[in-house]
Design a protein that fits this description.
heterodimer; A: about 350 residues; mainly alpha; ABC transporter involved in vitamin B12 uptake, BtuC; two-stranded antiparallel ribbon; 14 helices; 4 strands; globular; B: about 525 residues; alpha/beta; Rossmann fold; 6-stranded mixed sheet; 19 helices; 20 strands; disordered N terminus
Chain lengths: ~350, ~525
């Protein structure tokens, strides 16, 4: 899937500017390249890194983050951010687990409820940002706290144990679909559908336009607020999907489930090349970003480093990705400007 | 004014500040070309010229914001380099901008002494003496101020006075006022002038940049006129008439593609008594099919604001807009677009284009819902539409997939035009369509505009480029401070007449010939 956001143009840059442009346009490829190199290094000390079992486990775990990260990417492309994804995941996860435990709904019903709940929570974010004009970072920090608070209230000290969930439900995490683990298949399907939407629909085009140049979007008569609202709603829906995957994966769910995941989600998005200032980025990138973070977490375990490093490393990765982006953008602008002036 | 000031005021011996042979180039534009100017102690010196004449660049060089490509700046006989705003201030040069740059949440006294507050013990700021010193400055200016109040909420005029007090606090000997009266009431202007005269009498050299010629005569001792970045004349204002000054200002040399004569059709757009508070008042005009109506005026006269209301970006406070005889109210640009109006904005980077998008994606952006009613964008159709529209305009590109950011300014402007033409408008509003593009592309844009009019579009052409307005327009409306001061038909239009009206001289329609005669004489 080549870069749906930005048409891959015949960019007639001089040689020096050209490789920069190529790197910038092919962020996804560079990420893959980095993963291959890192993977090679880790394999030297821990050969089991490359085993099918290990890789598929990494991919399954990364899929949960990837699904949430793809939703986050939609929001970030519009120059906003959703910090409440982890609370949405947590609340949906507890709601679904609890409904199944109490046999209040059958499996399909519980899944539908989970998706609907995610969508509604996303719509709440969308309303607060577009209608009440609260800056997204503040609005979603607020809803992060609210959604998590509701989660605590509903759950109390109760924990849904793995054993009380339908066995078929949690086993699905280990199932595969034509050889592809089902979690990975779900993430890939979402990526394909989402990429088509971003690449080939009016909504997708408007999403990038709003993030890239809000003033132009306003002059062009693009319904910016509707576009941003939709992005938040879809982000909530995908966080709901991620919440359901979280239940299937871990089984044991309480009021604090999924706490702290927002760092990984946002890290996946920016590492995947989605511009934190909006306007560009792809779902492939977000997916690969999640995979990259999963690899790092896995590599830490294999080479025997403490898991406590993980948070710090995620933070470093975010800063590196964003600084690299800023430097790259500046260089490209300089190269392009030099070409335009006669 | 290089060298021989034959008519200096008797008080002056040596210039306080001098610019000698200053040149400065931005890309393809020669903003200043060998300009010399001398500011004497105790004079108010007017700097006048059309939009783009180079006034702002000159001010920015004195303020240390730009470094000239060549030429020297001499202060009190010593050549100096003004490397930055801090050094300008240290050299005793202070600038009061049209829009004061103050910190709204700090108090008046804090703003006056920001960066150089009287030090107290242990490196702290001595707020007591800061307040006393600020009070003393306003006493000198003879104005009353609550110096402990925050700046937020103060009027533009009061904020300018704070800027002036700030310049006094660093003992500025050269004070530059950059269009200080643009947003002041008559009473506030009087107060400002009284203060400026008082400063002048104390020996401060004042450079007064203004679009209002009556103020130049009222306040200034001498005036320097710039045109196209060149120095035209420096002379005493007492030896000048308004007509002289206007004649010095106009007369830019530009090669042009004049409008082709077209029979005019039905009236497409009628605007009656259109008013938006704070922007423009009582604007009425109409545009017929095939007609180009020029909107002339100086920067800030309200031309763009009129366009934004017509296009539904801003709301009107009063008045009526009729399109094809039917009263319309556009709540948003998309409604205006569906009604048949297109607007090519002044700033194509900010408002016109999405630079991250390809040419094709930019062209179809405003018409996506019309082009693809079923939600899915088909790139074959998109490329065909973009190809048709860009070929017609002769955009030089490697293909419609090329990124817009990689095009030259002229070609970007053509893509903006193509974009709006794809929406099939009946009335096209062009806001500075040729600003910042090279001469070849300019002629081509003129040809395109002329062809569009010939094809039956009604066109409103907003431009600060007088020869362009004169060559392209069937009729010229001149705005001055939000009001129409003249409506000049093509055969009677001259640069002098337009500039006369643009500087606020209301031309009596009946007596127009008399004025024109005076100007021609």
């Amino acid at each position: 899937m080549a870069d749906p956001g930005v048409a891959v143009g015949s960019f007639s840059a001089p040689a020096r500017g050209r490789w920069l442009v190529v790197v910038a346009r092919q962020r996804e490829l560079s990420l893959v390249a980095i993963m291959v190199v890192l993977g090679g290094l880790v394999t030297l000390t821990a050969p089991q890194f490359l085993s099918v079992a290990n890789i598929s486990q990494v991919a399954v775990l990364a899929s949960v983050i990837a699904v949430a990260a793809m939703g986050e990417a939609l929001v970030v492309i519009t120059r906003n951010v959703d910090l409440s994804v982890e609370a949405t995941m947590g609340l949906v996860a507890y709601a679904v687990a609890s409904l199944l435990e109490r046999h209040a709904l059958d499996t399909l019903g519980a899944l539908a409820f989970g998706l609907g709940l995610g969508l509604v929570l996303g719509m709440i974010n969308g309303v607060v940002v577009t209608l009440f004009k609260v800056p997204a970072i503040v609005a979603t920090l607020g809803t992060l706290s609210i959604f998590r608070g509701v989660d605590y209230l509903v759950a109390g000290s109760h924990q849904v144990p793995l054993a009380s969930l339908p066995p078929g439900f949690t086993d699905a995490a280990r199932d595969s679909f034509f050889g592809v683990p089902i979690f990975v298949a779900i993430a890939l399907i979402i990526m394909v559908i989402g990429s088509v939407i971003l690449r080939s629909t009016r909504f997708g085009r408007q999403l990038y336009a709003v993030g890239s140049n809000p003033e132009a979007a306003a002059i062009l008569g693009i319904p910016s607020r509707l576009v941003v609202f939709t992005a938040f709603s879809l982000c909530g829906l995908l966080a709901g999907v991620a919440g359901i995957l979280y239940v299937m994966e871990f089984g044991t769910i309480n009021g604090t489930s999924a706490t702290g995941l927002v760092l990984a989600v946002v890290a996946a998005v920016v590492v995947g090349g989605v511009n934190i200032f909006g306007g560009s980025g792809t779902l492939v990138g977000a997916l690969l970003g999640a995979l990259f973070l999963g690899f790092i977490a896995n590599a830490l375990i294999l080479i025997g480093l403490s898991q406590f490093w993980l948070q710090a490393i995620y933070g470093v990765v975010i800063l590196l990705a964003v600084s690299a982006d800023a430097i790259l953008v500046r260089r490209i602008q300089r190269a392009t400007a030099a070409r335009r002036v006669r | 004014m290089s060298g021989t000031p034959g008519n200096e005021p008797p008080t002056a011996t040596h210039p306080r500040a001098e610019l000698r042979g200053i040149s400065m180039r931005f890309g393809a534009t020669q903003a200043l070309d060998d300009v010399s100017l001398a500011l004497l102690p105790g004079e108010v010196h007017a700097l006048v010229g059309e939009n783009g004449a180079g006034k702002s660049t000159l001010v920015k060089i004195l303020a240390g914001i730009h470094q000239p490509d060549s030429g020297t700046i001499v202060l009190d006989g010593e050549p100096i380099v003004i490397a930055g705003p801090a050094q300008a201030r240290a050299s005793g040069i202070a600038v009061v901008h049209q829009e004061p740059r103050l910190f709204p949440d700090l108090t008046v006294a804090e703003n006056v002494f920001i960066g150089h507050a009287p030090p107290g013990r242990l490196g702290t700021i001595d707020w007591g003496s800061t307040r006393r010193a600020a009070q003393a400055l306003f006493d000198q200016l003879d104005v009353q101020f609550d110096i402990a109040a925050p700046v937020r909420g103060l009027s533009m005029a009061d904020q300018q006075l704070i800027e002036i007090a700030k310049s006094l606090s660093v003992d500025a000997r050269v004070l530059i006022l950059d269009e200080p009266t643009a947003s002041l009431s008559a009473h506030e202007v009087e107060r400002l002038f009284a203060i400026v005269r008082r400063l002048r009498d104390r020996g401060v050299s004042i450079l007064f940049v203004s679009h209002r010629l009556d103020e130049v005569f009222d306040l200034c001792d001498r005036a320097t006129v710039l045109r196209d970045g060149r120095h035209v004349v420096t002379t005493e204002t007492s030896a000048l008439t308004t007509a002289d000054l206007v004649r010095y200002m106009v007369g830019r040399a530009v090669s042009l593609f004049p409008k082709v004569e077209t029979p005019l059709g039905d009236t497409l757009l009628e605007v009656e008594h259109l008013t938006r508070a704070g922007a423009f008042r009582d604007v009425s005009f109409s545009v017929r099919a095939g007609e180009i109506v020029g909107l002339a005026g100086l920067v800030g006269a309200g031309r763009t604001e009129v366009a934004r209301v017509l296009f539904g970006v801003d709301a009107r406070d009063a008045g009526e807009i009729r399109l094809g005889g039917v009263p319309v109210t556009f709540g948003s640009p998309s409604e205006a677009m569906n009604g048949g109006i297109a607007y090519l904005p002044e700033d194509r980077h900010q408002e016109g284009l999405v630079l991250d998008f390809s040419i094709a994606q930019n062209v179809t952006l405003p018409i996506l819902p019309r082009l693809f009613p079923r939600f899915l964008v088909q790139s074959s159709i998109e490329r065909r539409v973009a190809g048709d529209n860009t070929r017609q305009l002769n955009v030089r590109m490697t293909g419609v997939d090329q990124l817009v950011g990689a095009l030259s300014g002229g070609n970007q402007q053509k893509v903006v035009l193509a974009k709006w033409l794809a929406s099939k408008p009946r009335v096209l509003i062009l806001d500075e369509p040729t600003r910042g593009i090279d001469i070849g592309a300019k002629v081509e844009v003129h040809r395109i505009i002329s062809e569009l009019a010939a094809s039956g579009l009604g066109i409103v052409l907003i431009s600060s480029d007088l020869p362009e307005v004169l060559a392209m327009s069937d009729r010229i409306l001149v705005l001055h401070e939000g009001r129409i001061t003249a409506e000049i038909p093509r055969d009677r239009a001259s640069e002098e007449r337009v500039m006369f009206a643009a500087t606020g001289n209301v031309e009596p329609i009946a007596g127009g010939d008399a004025v024109a005669g005076a100007l021609d004489g």
